[in-house]
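FAQ
Q: What does a multi-component entry look like?
A: The components come first, one per line:
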Amino acid sequence: MDSQSLFFSLELVAGSGNTLNVEQRAALQTSLVILQKNYKFQRVLLWGKVLGLKADYFIAQGRGEDEMKDRKNLYSLNCVDWFLLPPATVPLIDQVSSAAKGRFTGDPSHVYEHRDIRRRGDGDEEEEVVTKVNEEIRLAVTVHHIEEEVSVVPRGAFVKSPHGLVQINRSFCGLSYSESGKLDSFLHFSEPKNLKKKSLLETSQLNPAIDFLDVLSDDIPKGSWSLQFECGSKVCVLRSLLWLGLTFYHLPMTPQHGYIYIGDGAKNLDLAFML
Amino acid sequence: MERKQDSSEGTLQAVALLKTTMLKQSSKSGLNLNPAADKVMVDSRKLRSTGLHSDVSMKDTPTELELTENVCTLAHISVKLSYSYDHLTRVLIKVMDEQPQDVVDVIEDISRDVKRALFEDKQSILRDLPQTTAAELLAEQQRPLFSRPENNEQEDELQQETPLPNVSEIAFYLEQAGVGLGREEMQRIFLALKQLVESQELLCCRLWGKILGTVSSYIVAEAECREGEEEEEPISDEAAEEEERETETQESDENEMDPLPQSTYKPPPVVPKEPIGTGTNKCVYYVCKEPGLPWVKLPSVSPAQIAAARQIRKFFNGKLEAPVNSYPPFPGNEANYLRAQIARISAGTQVSPQGFFQTGEEEGDEEDEAPRDSYEVNSDFEGVPVNEMAESLSTWVHHGHHILPQGRCIWINMAVNSEDLNEEGEAEEKEEPDEPEPEVGPPLLTPLSQDVEMFNTPPWTSKMSSTLTPQHAVAVLRSNLWPGAFAYACGGKKFENIYVGWGLKYAGEGYSPPLPPQPQREYPSDSEITEALDPSLEEEQALKEVLEEQQDAQEELEDTDEEDEDDG
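Then the predicted structure of the entire assembly, as tokens:
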């Protein structure tokens, strides 16, 4: 959620139980301004908090001109000192998926080790492969996965220019109440995967400037989102059941929207049993 | 097809005509005509000369006779065009009324204005259908929360001790700990709790927490039940049904000549519920979906439900009556499932600073084995410093009963119980069951440092709420086994537990549902049923010889016997 609207938007997502305390909020208001200046970001978002066993990571996201591609993630343990997270590349993702297990510890230099015994082609020769990954990289990969899979924006909040630049739609004035009660008014804010597979008939209704993202209602399995109206039925709140802890809010009829992840950084792999 | 062509032709002509008249107007006002416009004019004249002439006399459009003629021609072309005809008339009248300087430039605007004027007139007839939104309905329902009681007993209320907890204060400390439901929401819950306390006349009430569901969430309040109050439950339906079934089968046995084979399966005896006020049913729980909506009392929990809840992993839906579709099947609906999870969470995460509570029996040395099942507030408790509470887990103790694998807090010997139930049971059965090992859990008020580590994860995380001002910070405890369970302790004697989450236990590396039980054997496998190889001829002959030999031997024996008798 945007650092500018932090002082009221945290209240709106508090229905999930997790908030930030006053000290952290005050610290964020100060440090995020400095962060924006130092890294020359267009805007800074408080992305969320990953709960560790000993300490928690606060994650901020800086966005450049292109809201989709110019993103940088930073983490902090005390809401004041921010460190850049490395970009999640494919080899890093592979390493993390094989080595990292269990909960986050809260120490960025904690090393996860995984020993794998592979057999060479002829059979008898055994080779031990040790994958080592530190928690900072795991954090970067986890943030990347969450961004990829469950970051949400309301339809129309961002426009894509003919040059491919994705920017905030200044004339977006919010979904109506009836629209915000439906999952197809919300889009994944990541590179689309299903859009190209759609038939001509389906895409004929779409507006290429707005509908350049995947729709939430196409997600598999069905029912991986919980949509509710909270705070006296005035705020539309979406919770991901795949990544428990991701909460999105949107005030219908206003351009206010945002999401935050406060959770233990584990994907809910048991979702299929739980619906 | 023809018609369509007609109309499209008509429109074209209409446009041409319009252009003509406009040009005429503009020429009148001194503009030069360009050749294209001339052409249009010629075209339109041709049109008129081709015999589409009209004798329909139009309403008197003033002054310009030619104009009227044009429009009349247009009217004649197609009846379908009546709308555009009307529109054109209006546009032209407007043009002539206003006599603007450059009609060609503004004709589109004039046309649009005319259309809009028409539309606005019509719109005033339609009224907005007032629709009640969910927000309005909820606001109506929440309105009574904010109404002040009229009677003047407030002074008395202030003096006497109230069962209502100070939720605002709790919310303040919880916010320090990074937990909360939003300040306004907390205030609403506070008022709703007040309503609950007043309507149910509870002795003690506490905000237990909130359980999130996929459609709506539950706000849970915990209350201590009054003594002597028993839940009036209809005699458990299942048992009654079973009895009925038995009687039915007996009757049918008498009637039928050839009774169907009876199932030899006997269900294991049902572990009885704990009575209200003890163990898992120590407290009663009320839930509501939104503050202001009515509170619903949850049914008491049975050991079978707890056992089933341990094996399944399901999200809550948000409807209390909804069935729980799961494997293994859950006995009951979502209200029972919710109650079972609440019991489990309470048992696992209700903690307090060590020394705040003390066990009831002080001379308990003699009966050390008996589980201590009651505690009372220690009046001499001094309070533990916050930094100590944040550092070591041994300063915290469980004050919730551990639930045994049986699904009860206090172990009950089922072997003894079943004998009592069917006294007519054969004597053999009585000897059979070995005396089962009683299940023992950790006693009440066990320090958290003795909790078992599961999935290589320490069960609790403790820290200070603030690193900058530790002098006034709050010690925060977060459960890792039940994500969403928190406890705080501050200053001397203030502490509170809350749970806000999905009502699910941490399952480590993924959950795997229990396998279905082995299928029942169709028949007992013994020698009579098993298939054997047919004997060969040699084997049969060998068998025959053996049999004959035996016979001979027997006959010989008999002969000797007879001889003996003869001798005798």
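Q: Is there any commentary attached?
A: Sometimes. For this entry: Residues 213 and 316 of chain B are 5 Å apart (CA to CA).
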